[in-house]
């Protein structure tokens, strides 16, 4: 009986954990399908978590704080989008730079606003729904709904077809009259906003404060989810749950275990687990052929 | 003036690296005519049309379409003005169906149309013009000729009144070329203006009403097709008398050196590209493989060079089975391969020295694995001298060399150490006339020295000029082998198109 | 002198100009934004930037020693990059290298063994990442980052629970004297020997990349895999070798750090944290060339130390230096912009003069 209860706890914890992994992956699927790779998701998580905490702290308005996170994502998406499209920059390098910058900015903000190098003070979080006695954030069903909507959009609508064309063969798409650069820019902005949503979830929905470790590599696990799901939003739901489960397992074990020292070992579980899953479930994935290459007109 | 569909005045195009593609070109096309744009590779024909289509922006110049001055920011503007372009390399998304591709291209002009509307419109136009394409098939599975028809259909569905075709016949079989010409005449009767870019004199003479000839980015002349013959056009195109015959000593065939037995090779998509080809190449002879690109020649060449695995069959070099040997060992045994693309045969970002030793690395590696750069430098120096490769310095990255010099370097490298067998794929592709003549005479000289050459070329003139024997390849099989005298041009064309003739 | 001039003549002058513009432009952009940042945070930007740029020069030994580690992690990123791989795992390779060299030093007391062991540990990680990529198609960005975090926690766990110094529980057991790399004196000036050693490794890297067959294979495969295959080279083997080399240098970074500078590992990994990522910036600014990396590592080291002194004197957060590096990296992602700008100017000049 106890084991089943623990298992159910784990499952619900996994649902909690999966939200940023899902939102980040869906957003990234959108822009990678159009041909732009954004490895700065981690940085977006950090910065939107930061900004929404700040807004929440000063205004206590959760809706506004959530919106701020999304807007932060949009802003970063615009920058990365511009670099990757009209400025023909190297997408991976830009993403790396973004992550480094975001990390630096987070600490700067912590120091200047709250005078600490550790955590921000706690802020209120989004009220939860009660499901089978467990507290579940409304963002959990929301993120799943978003995944379904994005799947429909990509595969069943004309706009989705045009977006995918940019990632399949940008020259052909351009010749068909699609404005590839603009489409890619928009896709990146939208993708980054979803990541922004995931980021603010981290601080004002789950943890309740901002720390510089609030993301701890989740942005990259979301990237792993994109590859695992073969760029399909529906499969990404499954993937996010699996990776979230690893995360939940790590957290659960550190709480339950009697040896506090092992906590560090448990923390390894999400990362090794992700690596193992991605390595084992290697299928003939179909990477969008034009991914990562800047589209250069003459 | 309203008689003119297109009027381009004083068009210049200068590229960021300094190359000047177009110098003050004036170009005009009358409504409803088929106008030929003739010139060699690099004359500027494609550049001019890409400017008309809005793909490139002119550095200077004025463009008028149906009398109205225009400034296109991209192809979508050109399309809105009734211009449609069919490239040599199609702009279709291979993994989508024909209908999806058509739908995509239409939605950029008319928002909010349904896929059924696209289907209806496509069927309407197909019956009006009189050809057909399978709407629900994936593009990647269709024959080239059919794909081209999809492209034409695409432009018609977008209300194109001016159709630009860039070298449309280079990827077609002779039968498909006939179909295309029939279609073009039908379109002309429907009032469509057609601009036909080509370097093929016969076709231009056949199908066009007027011709504009470009050379090195300038207009050499605009003529009425009926008033000139092919020799006149050739002279305008090249600027001098073209010698179509090269002096060649008669062959004294020696013993066989390369034998290909019942070879089967797959292409990149996993389909059979070479289906049971058997050949014997003798010392001191040039065997020309004639055929339209895409019939298995490249796969055959790559299999012989060791770059592509052999499914069935054998390759023997001097009676030794090399079927499973890696490329560098074949090179060691005297086989040389000149690929059809300079981006495969050279590493453009590396300098002349590195490229000179590219296929012969092991000869320039000392004890351990150190590269002997001074030895390499000497070799590179001798290569550039012997083969007339013009370089500022041996350390210049090869990408800064002209196409002709790059080709000469690549060919020279493979030829310098006097291999026993050369597999040469499109050796003069994209070169100007002097470089072409140079390489062709080089091949003849090698032949006289006893080198066996397998020449693969889509240029029939080249095959006829150089070969001692000709083999025609179609869909992975050899249709016929014989001496050049045994074939008329017509017979060759039919064989290349898959028609067996006796 | 003849060789040098022919070398220079080989490259168009414009190539050098473009590189200079790219590097200086990115730095200028970074400094500009840092100035803005300091100003908005309420600090004196003039003093701040001076400290940021100048603070590194107060202690030359510290400057150069600090540069050592990121020079090595710079190689860890740049060598695989030449083969077309993004090795973000320099961080993890450094941790493992440091850990393994520490343990080897403790158990064998042999300096040379410990140094090489660290390199080999890094090499193994690199090999693992490469094998995953070549044989399982796992993207190296993901695998290297997962490994980074794994090794981060693993190292902390081992240092905290097994290898801690009973007299100073926040630190590991110290490196025994016999296995330590010390200082050398040049006249009055004392310098940690790790800097000259790293220069030796740089020369080694340069030699391997530009004077051996495997180096050629790596460079060729990264630039043009199809052409490399035509030449009889093997791009996949090149990737594996490149990752092994990169991992090796990442591990060496850890060895040099532990055996030659700190002589222990602390439980928060503060002495090694972030150097893998700094190495990426170093590699980018050094344009991937070993000699360039020497200069850019000193530059970055200067920035980091400057950040620290800025913090000490002005109380401004030293992470401004991090933010600055991030901006520089992003700006260095834009090579095309500079080329576009320069060629646009040149084209306009040519048309204006009606060139024929």
Descriptive account of the structure:
- The complex is a heterotrimer of chains A (298), B (502) and C (356).
- By secondary structure, chain A is an all-alpha fold.
- Helix content of chain A is 72%, strand content 2%.
- Chain A is built from 11 helices and 2 strands; from the N terminus they run ααααββααααααα.
- Chain A has a two-stranded antiparallel ribbon.
- In chain A, β1 and β2 form a beta hairpin.
- In chain A, α2 packs parallel to α4.
- Chain A is globular, with a radius of gyration of 19 Å.
- The mean pLDDT of chain A is 85.
- Chain B has 502 residues and is α/β, with parallel strands linked by helices.
- Chain B has 2 domains: 235 residues, Rossmann fold (3-Layer(aba) Sandwich), CATH 3.40.50.300; 241 residues, Rossmann fold, CATH 3.40.50.
- In chain B, the strands form 4 sheets. A 6-stranded mixed β-sheet of chain B has the order 6-7-8-3-9-10, sandwiched between helices. A 6-stranded mixed β-sheet of chain B has the order 16-17-18-13-19-20, with helices on both faces.
- In chain B, α3 packs across α4.
- The longest helix of chain B is centred in the middle third of the chain and has 16 residues.
- Chain B is globular and about 70 Å long.
- In chain C, a hairpin with a 2-residue loop joins β3 and β4.
- In chain C, α4 crosses α13, α6 packs antiparallel against α11 and α12 runs parallel beside α14.
- In chain C, 54% of the residues are buried.
- Chain C has 15 helices and 4 strands.
- Chain C has one domain: ABC transporter involved in vitamin B12 uptake, BtuC.
- Chain C is mainly alpha-helical and 356 residues long.
- Chains in contact: A-B, A-C, B-C.
């Amino acid at each position: 009986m106890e084991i089943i209860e623990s298992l159910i706890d784990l499952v619900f914890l996994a649902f909690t954990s999966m939200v940023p992994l899902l939102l980040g992956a869906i957003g990234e699927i959108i822009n990678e399908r159009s041909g732009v790779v954004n490895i700065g998701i981690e940085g977006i998580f950090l910065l939107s978590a930061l900004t929404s905490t700040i807004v929440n702290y000063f205004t206590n308005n959760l809706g506004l704080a959530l919106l701020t996170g999304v807007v932060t994502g949009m802003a970063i998406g615009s920058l990365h989008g511009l670099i990757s499209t009209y400025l023909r920059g190297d997408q991976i390098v830009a993403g790396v730079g973004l992550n480094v910058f975001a990390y630096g900015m987070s600490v700067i903000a912590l120091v200047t606003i709250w005078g600490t190098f550790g955590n921000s003070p706690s802020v209120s979080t989004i009220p939860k729904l009660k499901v089978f006695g467990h507290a579940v954030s409304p963002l959990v069903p929301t993120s799943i709904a978003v995944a379904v909507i994005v799947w429909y959009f990509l595969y069943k609508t004309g706009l989705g077809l045009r977006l995918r064309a940019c990632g399949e063969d940008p020259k052909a798409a351009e010749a068909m009259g699609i404005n590839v650069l603009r489409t890619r820019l928009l896709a990146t902005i939208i993708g980054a906003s979803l990541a922004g949503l995931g980021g603010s979830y981290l601080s004002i929905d789950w943890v309740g404060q901002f720390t510089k470790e609030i993301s701890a590599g989740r942005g990259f696990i979301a990237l792993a989810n994109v590859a695992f799901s073969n760029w399909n939003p529906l499969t990404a739901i499954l993937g996010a749950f699996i990776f979230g489960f690893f995360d939940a397992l790590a957290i659960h074990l550190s709480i339950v275990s009697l040896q506090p020292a092992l906590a560090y070992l448990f923390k390894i579980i999400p990362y090794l687990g992700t690596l193992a899953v991605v390595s084992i479930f290697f299928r003939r994935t179909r990477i969008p052929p034009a991914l990562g290459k800047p589209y250069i007109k003459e | 003036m309203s008689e003119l569909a297109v009027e381009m005045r004083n068009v210049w195009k200068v590229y960021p690296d300094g190359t000047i593609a177009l110098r003050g070109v004036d170009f005009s096309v009358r409504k409803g005519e088929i106008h030929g744009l003739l010139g060699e590779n690099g004359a500027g024909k494609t550049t001019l049309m890409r400017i008309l289509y809005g793909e490139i922006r002119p550095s200077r110049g004025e463009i008028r379409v149906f009398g109205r001055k225009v400034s296109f920011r991209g192809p979508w503007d050109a399309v809105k003005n009734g211009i449609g372009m069919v490239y040599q390399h199609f702009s279709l998304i291979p993994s989508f169906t024909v209908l999806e591709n058509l739908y995509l291209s239409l939605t950029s002009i008319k928002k909010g149309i349904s896929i059924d509307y696209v289907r209806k419109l496509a069927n309407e136009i197909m019956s009006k013009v009189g050809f057909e394409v399978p709407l629900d098939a994936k593009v990647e599975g269709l024959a080239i000729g059919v794909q081209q028809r999809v492209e034409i259909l695409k432009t018609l569905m977008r209300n194109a009144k001016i159709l630009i075709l860039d070298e449309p016949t280079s990827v077609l079989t002779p039968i498909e070329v006939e179909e295309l010409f029939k279609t073009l005449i039908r379109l002309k009767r429907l009032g469509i203006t057609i601009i036909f870019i080509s370097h093929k004199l016969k076709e231009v003479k056949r199908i066009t009403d007027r011709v504009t000839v470009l050379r090195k980015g300038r207009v050499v002349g605009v003529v009425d097709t009926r008033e000139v013959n092919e020799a006149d056009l050739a002279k305008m195109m090249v600027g001098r008398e073209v010698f179509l015959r090269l002096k060649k000593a008669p062959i004294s065939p020696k013993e066989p050196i390369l034998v290909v037995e019942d070879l089967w090779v797959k292409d990149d998509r996993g389909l059979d590209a070479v289906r049971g080809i058997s050949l014997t190449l003798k010392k001191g002879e040039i065997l020309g493989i004639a055929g339209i690109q895409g019939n298995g020649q490249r796969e055959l060449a790559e299999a012989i060079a060791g770059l592509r695995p052999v499914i069935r069959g054998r390759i023997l070099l001097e009676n030794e089975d090399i079927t499973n040997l890696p490329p560098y060992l074949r090179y060691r045994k005297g086989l040389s391969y000149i690929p059809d693309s300079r981006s495969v045969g050279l590493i453009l970002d590396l300098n002349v020295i590195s490229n000179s030793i590219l296929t012969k690395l092991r000869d320039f590696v000392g004890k351990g694995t150190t590269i002997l750069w001074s030895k390499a430098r000497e070799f590179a120096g001798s290569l550039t001298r012997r083969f007339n490769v013009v370089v500022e310095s041996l350390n210049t990255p090869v990408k800064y060399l002209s196409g002709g010099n790059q080709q000469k370097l690549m060919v020279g490298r493979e030829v310098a150490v006097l291999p026993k067998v050369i597999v040469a794929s499109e050796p003069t592709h994209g070169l100007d006339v002097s470089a072409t003549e140079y390489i062709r005479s080089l091949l003849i000289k090698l032949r006289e020295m006893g080198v066996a050459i397998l020449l693969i070329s889509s240029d029939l003139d080249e095959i006829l000029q150089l070969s001692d024997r000709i083999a025609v390849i179609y869909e992975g099989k050899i249709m016929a082998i014989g001496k050049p005298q045994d074939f008329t041009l017509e017979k060759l064309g039919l064989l290349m198109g898959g028609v067996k003739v006796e | 002198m003849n060789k040098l001039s022919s070398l220079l003549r080989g490259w168009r002058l414009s190539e050098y100009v473009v590189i200079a513009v790219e590097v200086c432009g990115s730095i200028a952009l970074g400094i500009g934004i840092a100035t803005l940042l300091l100003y908005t945070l309420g600090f004196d930007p003039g003093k701040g930037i001076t400290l940021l740029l100048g603070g590194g020069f107060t202690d030359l030994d510290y400057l150069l020693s600090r540069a050592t580690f990121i020079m090595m992690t710079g190689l860890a990123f740049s060598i695989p990059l030449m083969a077309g791989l993004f090795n973000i795992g320099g961080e993890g390779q450094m941790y493992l290298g440091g850990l393994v060299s520490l343990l080897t030093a403790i158990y064998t007391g042999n300096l040379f063994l410990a140094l090489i062991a660290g390199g080999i540990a890094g090499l193994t990680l690199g090999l693992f990442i490469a094998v995953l990529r070549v044989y399982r198609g796992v993207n190296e960005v993901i695998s290297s980052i997962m490994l980074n975090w794994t090794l981060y926690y693993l190292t902390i766990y081992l240092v905290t629970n097994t290898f801690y110094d009973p007299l100073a529980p926040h630190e590991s057991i110290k490196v025994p004297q016999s296995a330590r790399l010390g200082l050398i004196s040049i006249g009055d000036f004392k310098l940690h020997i790790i800097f000259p050693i790293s220069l030796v490794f740089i020369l080694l890297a340069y030699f391997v990349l530009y004077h051996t067959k495997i180096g050629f294979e790596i460079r060729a495969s990264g630039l043009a895999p199809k052409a490399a295959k035509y030449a009889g080279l093997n791009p996949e083997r090149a990737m594996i070798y490149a990752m092994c080399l990169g991992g090796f240098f990442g591990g060496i970074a850890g060895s040099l750090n532990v055996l030659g500078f700190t002589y222990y590992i602390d439980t928060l990994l503060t002495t090694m944290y972030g150097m893998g990522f700094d190495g990426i910036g170093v590699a980018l600014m050094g344009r991937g060339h070993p000699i360039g990396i020497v200069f850019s590592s000193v530059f970055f080291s200067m920035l980091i130390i400057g950040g620290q002194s800025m913090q000490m004197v002005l109380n401004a957060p030293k992470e401004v230096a991090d933010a600055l590096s991030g901006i520089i990296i992003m700006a260095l992602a834009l090579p095309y912009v500079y080329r576009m700008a320069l060629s646009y100017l040149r084209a306009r000049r040519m048309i204006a003069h009606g060139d024929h």
